[in-house]
Amino acid sequence: MITQLPGSLIVLDGNDRVQWAAEQILTDRLVRRDRIAVRSVLDCAMAARASGETTVTSVSILRPPLRTGDWDLRVRAIPLDFDWVLLVIDDLSEENRVAAVRRDFIANVSHELKTPVGAVALLSEALVAARDDPKAVSHFAEKMQIETERLSNLIQDVIDLGRLQGEDPLENARVVPLPEIADSAVEFVRGAADAKNITLALSAAPDSDVFGERDQIETAMRNVLANAIAYSSPHTQVAISVRPNGAIVEITVRDQGIGIPETELDRIFERFYRVDAARSRVTGGTGLGLSIVRNVCRNHGGDVQVWSAPGEGSTFTLQLPRYQKSSQDNSSSIEEKP
After folding, report:
1. pLDDT tens digits, one per residue of 132-143
2. Is residue 208 over pLDDT 70?
3. Quick one: which of 62, 140, 245, 260 is 20 to 30 A from 13 by CA?
4. Distances, alpha carbon 327 to alpha carbons 55, 80, 202, in Å
């Protein structure tokens, strides 16, 4: 009968030892050996036992191993006979993500689409006014084409960011071979690099698999590479390395570009933030690429780090949990979000 109840279930005996747990609980590492791994979940069970009444609490857990990304849980503790307690755990992460996506999408669209849409409107008016001047018509038509492409890129990035916020990549995760993904991402941006005579140097070590959603990870790598090329001078090099480092795999992208001032480093992952707005207009940047990168990494339980200095270039390091056959054991610790 217990297995027919909604949610993920844990049964505790009177000594707070786990006597039974749903498979998903073990996969999510909420139980280590025969003990609850999250203190507030255990406190909820103890409160229900002491009061003899159902107790409900909300818990936000940071994804291991880098403690980024959230699992939002609702925990119901139901007292049973002989001081046993039934825990019913509902994952609210998807529901909360959808609500956040809806809010962000409305804010993003209303704020950022005004500029390119307004530019297209003004250019169309100028085009009509200059209809008897072939050179002016050609000039305004080229400008409209640029603004239309920028608008298209912006819409696609907003859609991609919304999709990333609205999906949990670990729900349908697969083993992803990062050396293969890195090679594909390099080939995707090679045309842009060749146009500026930028050399792409890729080094990928074996045993660099991760567990996640392939398309999201490749999108993140493409964005970092495209960013490195856009902000690098001609005849320079962008170096890409893929290396395992303990429980994570690090994807490092080093460029010899213009660099980022230290005062700006904390803001470059914000939506629509641009260090150099004028340069972004030239390169067609939307200000969403690095935000997408951070969302991908954190949704996978990883993160992204950056080092940069003006005139020296930048180094972006994407960190993703490494896939190992033993990675589904319960040895990793669980940390609650403060």
Report:
1. 888 888 888 888
2. yes
3. 62
4. 33, 34, 27
103 and 233 share a domain? no
Find tokens 């505790």 and name the residue: 12
3-class DSSP assignment, residue 204: strand
DSSP state of 92: -
Rounded Cα gap, residues 213 and 12, in angstroms: 34
Residue 198 and residue 186 in contact, taking contact as beta carbons nearer than 8 Å = no
Q: How many CB atoms lie within 10 A of CB 71?
A: 23
DSSP letters, 21-52, are: E-HHHHHTT-EETTEES-HHHHHHHHHHHHHS
C-alpha 263: how far from chain center: 23
- The one-letter amino acid code at 155 reads I
Q: Are 232 and 254 in contact (CB under 8 A)?
A: no
Domain boundary among 72, 91, 110: 91
Residues 6 or more apart whose CB falls under 8 angstroms from that of 296 comprise: 164, 169, 216, 217, 219, 220
Residue 262: domain span: 173-325
Q: Is the peptide bond before 179 cis (omega within 30 degrees of 0)?
A: no
Strand partners, 56: 76
The CATH number given to whatever domain includes residue 28 is 3.30.450.20
Q: Report the domain count for the chain.
A: 3
For residue 62, with 0-12 CB atoms within 10 Å meaning exposed, 13-18 middle and 19 or more buried, which class applies? middle
**What distance lies between CA 133 and its chain's CA centroid?**
49
Domain match, 121 and 219 both: no
User: What strands lie across the sheet with 8-12, from one edge to the other?
Assistant: 18-21, 8-12, 85-91, 70-79, 55-62, 335-336
This prediction has a pTM of 0.56
> Could you tell me if residue 336 is inside a domain?
no
How far lies 256's CA from each of 131, 141, 230, 278, in Å? 45, 35, 11, 20
The token pair at 69 is 């990304």
Q: What is the enclosing helix (H) or strand (E) of 200? A: strand 199-204
Question: Of 120, 146, 167, which residue sits at a domain end?
Answer: 167
52 phi, psi to nearest 5 deg: 75, 15
Which tokens belong to 71? Answer: 């699992």
